[in-house]
Specification:
The chain is α+β, with helices and mostly antiparallel strands. It is built from 14 helices and 18 strands. The strands form 3 sheets. Strands 3-2-4-1-10-9-11 form a 7-stranded antiparallel beta sheet, with helices on one face. A 6-stranded antiparallel beta sheet has the order 5-6-7-8-12-13. Strands 16-15-14-17-18 form a 5-stranded parallel beta sheet, with helices on both faces. Its EC number is 6.3.4.20.
């Protein structure tokens, strides 16, 4: 909707040169942020005595800032601005300064990116007087009425009363030298310029640096204000945050994306042992081993005593371009070693698609977590098994689900290689004897594809004979498993 931004200035003495350089960076941020708002521009500077310096214009920000007098002087401690993208629902033909953000109350100043849907209800409920019909104008009088000055008080005032979307930058003339940031799903980033002793902030990280090609030692440290967070930062070095999420005690419902293989089965069993309320989610997507995987998942569900959600989909019949989907042959070079170390059987964006579908199901049916069998071993060949993949998806998850919803991706075996996964499965009593790992759909595991190769060696490293059968010569099998002990099938989990 808008760009909001500004700066909090640290240090006891702000000389003319530093003030000039800080203002140059601030003007850069304003101009770069014009892409998110061109309908008006406003900026408010707060000095250490609680006095305000205000400039507002109906021009687009790049024009307005070229006409703006110097906004920072030796007493300035904080500045906030807004490049407004005027929503259709908030359109004002003849704007006055009161219709241009930041909105100024008796002592609270607010820059807002987003939409307040219940501004009229708030006005009536609390008998508030605002200076503009624009929704953001309700925030200064609302906070002046409800906010006790604490960070928790700010959180409570917003989550208990305000309906809508927001990233807020707030100043208070009664408490100069402090800035408050509050976001739900609207973005906000901070950048620390150590040479200027100044904390700049803006709606996107790209606005906070003039040259992405700078060497790392000459680049400001940039950090995101986490979604659904309130933060207070002071020039005295204090820094605190609180969550805006309403945590429900004891909620640990997890949807485990399950193939029927070692990794997801061990992950599900581990989570079950940790006290999670587990449901398995299985996709039949037209792949080679569909029949055996489906059979395995059903047996695993019965063993664990958990619910199963099963989705039959033909999407990947359109995608194709993978040996697992019938295009090409399974790699069996060197009895599976090469197949285990390179993504010969890559299915385009499979995990990405599965996680997207699981996210929709989790949000709709109230699951708190989605778990996968992503692991460190297969991350060596498959990019969508890399821990970073899940970590980055969690960064965007607040924007993938509805307002005030929370779904988190977890990877119980993400940090483990295959023999460690087998060990964890043995320790937790996972039904490894019921799992299917092979790329083929035969009555026995082929023993020569990449997953079979890794599986066999993972069990052997643990000194345990794999309980599944392989389509390999019996003499070779006896020789391979010599010195290992027999697998002891665990007891069915009773709930």
């Amino acid at each position: 909707m808008c760009t909001i931004g500004g700066v909090l200035i640290f240090g006891d003495r702000l000389d003319r040169d530093r003030a000039k350089r800080i203002e140059e960076v601030l003007r850069m941020i304003i101009v770069k942020g014009e892409e998110r708002g061109r309908d008006s521009f406003g900026i408010v500077a707060l000095d250490k005595n609680g006095e305000l310096n205000v400039f507002k214009s109906r021009d687009r920000p790049s024009i307005a800032v070229s006409r703006m007098p110097s906004i920072i002087n030796e007493n300035t401690v904080a500045v906030i601005f807004n490049n407004r993208a005027e929503p259709t629902t908030e359109y004002v033909r003849a704007k006055t300064e009161d219709d241009i953000q930041p909105m100024i109350g008796e002592h609270v100043v607010v820059a807002h990116n987003g939409t307040i849907a219940n501004d009229k209800d708030l006005e009536t409920k609390f008998n508030l007087t605002r200076r503009s019909r624009i929704d953001t104008a309700i925030l200064p009088p609302l906070l002046e009425r409800l906010w006790d000055g604490s960070l928790n008080g700010l959180r409570d005032a917003l989550i208990n009363h305000v309906i809508g979307s927001y990233a807020l930058a707030i100043m208070d003339t009664h408490r100069p030298g402090r800035v408050w940031f509050v976001t739900n799903f609207k973005p906000l980033y901070m950048a620390w310029y150590s040479d200027l002793k100044a904390l700049f902030f803006a709606s996107l990280d790209d606005y906070l640096i003039d040259d992405q090609g700078r060497p790392i030692w000459d680049t400001p440290a940039i950090r995101r204000v986490e979604p659904y967070t309130a933060m207070e930062v002071g020039v005295d070095g204090t820094w605190s945050t609180v969550s805006l999420r309403r945590e429900e005690q004891g909620r640990r419902r997890v949807l485990v994306i399950a193939s029927g293989g070692l990794d997801s089965t061990t992950a599900a069993t581990y989570l079950l042992r940790q006290g999670y309320d587990v449901t398995l989610l299985h996709f039949n997507y037209g792949h080679r081993a569909e029949t055996q995987e489906d059979r395995a998942v059903r047996r695993i569900v019965e063993f664990l005593g958990v619910p199963l959600l099963e989705i039959n989909m033909d999407f990947f019949r359109v995608v194709r371009h993978s040996p697992l989907l019938g295009d090409g042959e399974i790699n069996r070079i060197d009895r599976g070693r090469e197949g285990a170390e390179f993504a010969h059987e890559w299915v385009p964006a499979r995990n990405f698609v599965f996680i997207a579908l699981a996210t929709a199901i989790a949000e709709a049916y109230g699951f708190d977590y989605i778990a996968t069998g992503i692991n460190l071993e297969e991350a060596g060949a498959y990019p969508d098994n890399e821990m970073e993949f899940i970590r980055l998806l969690n960064k965007v998850m607040p924007y993938a689900v509805g307002p005030n919803k929370h779904v988190e991706l977890i990877m119980p075996v993400g940090h483990l290689v295959k023999h460690e996964i087998v060990r964890l499965g043995l320790e937790t009593g996972a039904p490894l004897h019921l799992t299917w790992s092979c790329y083929d759909n035969g009555e026995k595991h082929c023993g020569r594809c990449g997953p079979c190769y890794m599986r066999r060696w993972a069990f052997k490293i643990n000194g345990v004979r794999d309980p599944v059968e392989y389509d390999l010569p019996s003499e070779a099998e006896e020789e391979f498993w010599r010195g290992t002990r027999l697998y002891e099938a665990p007891k069915k989990i009773s709930r």
